[in-house]
Model the fold of this input.
Amino acid sequence: MALIRWFGESDPWRLMERQAEQAQREFQRLWGNLGMSQARSSLFPALNIYDDGESFIVRAEVPGVDPKNLDVSATGDTLTIRGKREIEPAGKECSYHRRERSGGEFRRAFSLPDSVDTSKVMAMVKDGILEVRLPRAEAAKQRKIQIQAS
Amino acid sequence: MSSEQKKEITVSAKKEIQPGSGEPITQGVLFVPEVDITENQDGVTLTADLPGVRKEDLDIDYREGVLTLTAKVEPPPTHHRLTYQEYEVGGFQRRFTVGERVDIAKIEANLKHGVLSLFLPRAEEHKPRKIEIKA
Done:
């Protein structure tokens, strides 16, 4: 991790802002080569990635996907989200007025940065939202270094 | 209404409701959920994708032949800094005109895995009633 250059600013908010910008740049350096476009993805499911300082949090909208039909795996440096969205067909006597929802199988994979501890990846589904928590490896966490008085 | 009963549910949906036009700003962006609508002799079934919507945050309103779905979605905690985005987080709203006589008392709604299933049963025809004459 590159050092934060000190601008002699006394405003802690400016400093925090600067650190946030830097974290974002670091993130883009690490995740920027995933082959994912910054534009709205045409892949299912669409993903948002958050950072709470401790972990990266990947969220995806997966309405109607039964958690048992959802498979999240972290192998080596790759995270894979795989699943099936089942849409019950209408009964025989039923006629469709609107048919906008679609079902089928899906799979998305992307490589994880080294700073993620893949052994501690956790995933959960709630109300049709998949959340994958990718904790930062201990070595990648920011630590405050104590200065000893001589 | 003409002798030919209008049977189809017609959609009158907005793509996105902008705050500022009388909408509370705190509600943020509203999206149009994707739906399937099927019909059989018992009634109309509506299935809507509402990811991230909890039961208590969903409002289903049916009055005078207009069905309105309004759902709120909790935004992620503020300390979760967004670093990569493919979808926007916001609520949902969609309005339907129901051209059927619906038995309001028997409307059934079920929300599971972010999908709403709503059954609007057809009202029973006006049955001929025998009127008792009291002595």
About this structure: Chain B touches chain A at residues 8-9, 11, 34-41, 44-45, 47, 49-54, 76-77, 79-87, 89, 113-115 (CB under 8 Å). The mean pLDDT of chain B is 78.
